[in-house]
What we know:
The protein has a domain at about 1-25 and about 220-358: Leucine-rich repeat, LRR (right-handed beta-alpha superhelix). The radius of gyration is 24 Å and the shape is elongated. About 5% of the residues lie in helices and about 20% in strands. It has helices at about 325-330, 350-355; strands at about 1-5, 30, 35-40, 45-50, 55, 70-75, 80, 95-100, 115-120, 140, 165, 185-190, 210, 235, 245, 260, 270, 280-285, 290-295, 305-310. By secondary structure, the protein is mainly beta.
Amino acid sequence: MLLIGYCIAKEPIEYYEDKRVPDSRGEDVNSQGTLLTCWWPKDAGRVILSSKDKQILTQDKFESFSECRSLDLINLGIVDMENAVFSTMGNLQYLTIGDDDIHLRPAMFEGLDLKMISLYNMSINILPDRFFAQHDSLLELLLHKNPLNVINPESFFGLSSLTALKLAYSNVVVTPGLFQHLPELIRLDISHTPFKFTPDMWNNVSLISLRLENAGLSDLSSEIWTGLEGFLKIMSLSGNHFQTITSHSFHGLTKLTNLELNMCGIQHVDAQAFEGTESLEWLFLKHNPIITMDSNMFGSTPLQEQVMIWFDCESMSCFPDLCWIHEKMKETEIVKPWCDTRCDNYNITLEQYLDNEC
């Protein structure tokens, strides 16, 4: 079944279960009268700390939170912290530090068995070798919005269980072998980061999800994905600059189910552009000034029973080749695509539109 949607739809969002328990009195809870303010009770699953004054974090500030599983330190005005500052929090699994001018220290997370570390929008420009070597149970590492420019394979040594890595909004140069110590890595986000493809870049990784949005890409070639064949399922390339999607641009990505190419300035989709994407279920082409879409853009690839293709409804009149879609839809169930209520075509289905045009 081939379903074509012409709409401006909301992007899917990621969310996490929040197990915070607000104070039963409905009031803020102070932590020992220190500079830190705890907005949740001390026995809560998650604790958020805030402060208005610059401070140095010391172990004594966390002694009362030994049962805490998740700790957020956001915009605290922290200027420094003791080594092993969290060592009294033996149950801590999820740690977020953000929006502060903090530099990494050698024993920063000593004594912790963390599942997730988020260090975002800080002053990290160098990720030291083997900095996380003692955290072989870590599953997620989020380092986005840092001025990172020095990073090498040894920076990730010891992270044998890591499944998700976020390096978005940085100056990281992705080089071959960078992820060689991450055998379990399946989710990688390097959006808004200058990206330059080099051979053997994806050796030793089995990525399922790859985000390369606004990465300065201007050319697509199947060679870019060498090493990801048979693994990659979700990929976003939105915000890059591809005037034309040429033939075999995604050849070999047989497991790919979701492909986002929104806001890429695409004008032409050539024959066999998506050849080989036999598992494709969602194709997003929104906010592109598309002029032509070749009727053979999938080549000889057998399509799934249902494939959703999204493009802007205001561009419908710019599709002289859309009649091929009409032929494919004749033998399948037709659903009314969604459309922006401001669009002139809001009250008609794509089938009706094509009936008139074809």
